[in-house]
Amino acid sequence: MTSRLLESPVSPDWQALMRCIMRQETPRRVHYIELFLDPEVNDAVAERYDLDTSTAGDPFDRYMERYVAIQRCLGYDYVRCGVEDMAWPMNRDATEDTAALARAGGRSYIDEHRGPITSWEEFERYPWPDPAKAGTRALEWCEKHLPDDMCVIAGGGFGHIAEHLIWLMGYETICYALYDQRDLVQAISDKIVAIFVDVMRIVLQFPRVKATWGSDDLGHKTGTLISPADTREFMLPGHKLLAAMSHDAGRPYLLHSCGNLSTIMDDLIHDVRIDAKHSFEDTIEDVTEVKDTYGREIALLGGIDVDFLCTADEQMIRKRVRNTLDKCMPGGGYCLGTGNSVANYIPLENYLIMLDEGRRWRG
Questions:
Q1: What is the pLDDT of residues 287-337, one digit of tens each?
Q2: How many domains does the chain have?
Q3: What pTM did the predictor assign?
Q4: Is 217 domain-assigned?
Q5: Which domain holds residue 104?
Q6: 3-state helix, strand, coil in the chain (%, to 5)
Q7: How far apart are CA 324 and CA 334, in angstroms?
Q8: Which CATH number goes with the domain that contains 153?
Q9: Residues 1-11: pLDDT tens digits?
Q10: DSSP code per residue over 298-334
Q11: Helices assigned H by DSSP within 105-235
């Protein structure tokens, strides 16, 4: 049976979402944003709100119709999709998933010791994805079928410059390679960026795409994963190029990045020229604390800490959401969401309470 949560209606308005992200006005209501919801969460939402109603027709059509229905039910103004068939083989390990909404087959993790490319020979043998063969079925579907009050935020197939560079070499390997194989590091970085440039060119051809979202974890709890200087040399130029392409096409460029980015925030804002920052963790910085610092120059996305959502009760969640909105909504440039993504280990009820309190907020 459907809960009382999310009873207050929300009508999607992608144009208002974009005005909010670009800090053009204080929104009339709260807008929501997430990098993604784990598939198990989507399944649980669909079951809870009786959204699995279609059983006929093409399976891909049913999948997309269900995705749109979930997004609208939760109050989002957009769907997030990109190109398909862009596999990047990585060295991974798997372990059992202990979440309440456990993933069949467990969770996989990148091998930090050694990636698939540690030498020039492996660089030449690696099966690099070919953007010319990328699929655009989801983007094409949205052009024809996405409701007019929703837009596409393109993501998922580009912008993983730091992540792919580190994953392809392995974190331990790249730390050594930055000393004795910098030419190989540069070659891998250049190859990654060239592929992502082609992908960005593809997604920008679709008019329903109104923003692009690079996703790239550049840091850890206390700093960047590699030195700020090397981050500026090997990773930020690619984001600068992608942001310029997005801006030239009239779309804002959003960046998701975990980690403490304090040493490179000026670079991201003034050189790369990101329009919004996503991913906030309480042990690094509270989103409300940066509303009056770099939040005056770019939009802030999310910020309700994932660990907090896992452990807090309803009263605590509602109070934090209200306080966050009171601080961050004036002037625009804030969208409500988790500090990272809607992982399957966040209690579903707590996630829905966060959204529900956003619907109740009146400023």
A1: 999 999 999 999 999 999 999 999 999 999 999 999 999 999 999 999 999
A2: 1
A3: 0.96
A4: yes
A5: 14-360
A6: 45, 15, 45
A7: 10
A8: 3.20.20.210
A9: 345 899 988 99
A10: SEEE--B-HHHHHH--HHHHHHHHHHHHHHH-TTS-E
A11: 120-125, 137-145, 161-169, 171-180, 182-203, 228-234
